[in-house]
Amino acid sequence: MSVVYDWAANLLRRIYDARIDDASVLDMRQRFPEAQRFIDAWPQLRDEALRVAQRLQSVPRFHELMAAQADISAQDGIDWRLFVLKAYGAEMPDNLAACPQLARLLASCPDVLSASLSFLSPHKHIPCHRGPFRGVLRFQLGLSVPLAPDGRPAAVLALDGIEHRIGDGAGLLWDDTYPHEVWNRSDAVRIALLLDVRRRGLPLDLALLSRVLIGAVRVAVKWNTARTAALEPGRM
């Protein structure tokens, strides 16, 4: 992980941790009531994700999207791929067009800042790490989750020392600034929907800081997307 990213992430954590004492797992009904709409639509969202999976080799690995995360994405040579539809408010039109049902849900939920389909290859391990920014919450919805021999989901999220197994159609709202790691203990790809949701109810100064940070990241994403498109043959 780059020194600059690490320093900035630690600074942000200190600022927010001093003022926010929420638990690692939060009540979806209170903090993200729109979650139920995604849960209700999970069979359609799964079908869209499975269509994307048919061309999985064209979906970038996480460290190809964010080089600073190579130590959690590329460390074991096993793929973790992310199909990004929205990143801190910056939309990816081609990817949204590939998932029309998900696109409609996202368009009706302005508090969803980022949305990705996460494809975790068989036996992939994402080592313990923490997210940098407590101004958002992570919603995870199981779309196509392989099962272990005992019938439980084979993909495990260890969050703040507690294991969570998020199966098909199951959702969890959690704070990714708590230490967490993930395993896919199966021979099949695990597919999940990951949403970053605006954290409401912050003190005014933290709410303003969050708005500035989200806006800055959105500008950076748009600039990087435009730059990448300009460098691609036929996209000038």
Descriptors:
236 residues; alpha+beta; Jelly Rolls; seven-stranded antiparallel sheet; four-stranded antiparallel sheet
Describe the protein.
The protein is an alpha+beta fold. It has a single domain (3-231), classed as Jelly Rolls (Sandwich). It is built from nine helices and eleven strands. The protein has helices spanning 3-17, 28-31, 35-40, 42-53, 62-65, 70-73, 93-98, 100-107, 204-231; strands spanning 25-26, 80-87, 90-91, 112-120, 125-129, 136-144, 155-159, 162-164, 171-174, 180-184, 190-198. The strands form two sheets. The chain has a seven-stranded antiparallel sheet. Strands 5-10-7-8 form a four-stranded antiparallel sheet. The longest helix has 28 residues, at 204-231. The radius of gyration is 17 Å and the shape is globular. It starts with a helix and ends in a 5-residue tail after the last helix. The model has no long low-confidence stretch (mean pLDDT 90).
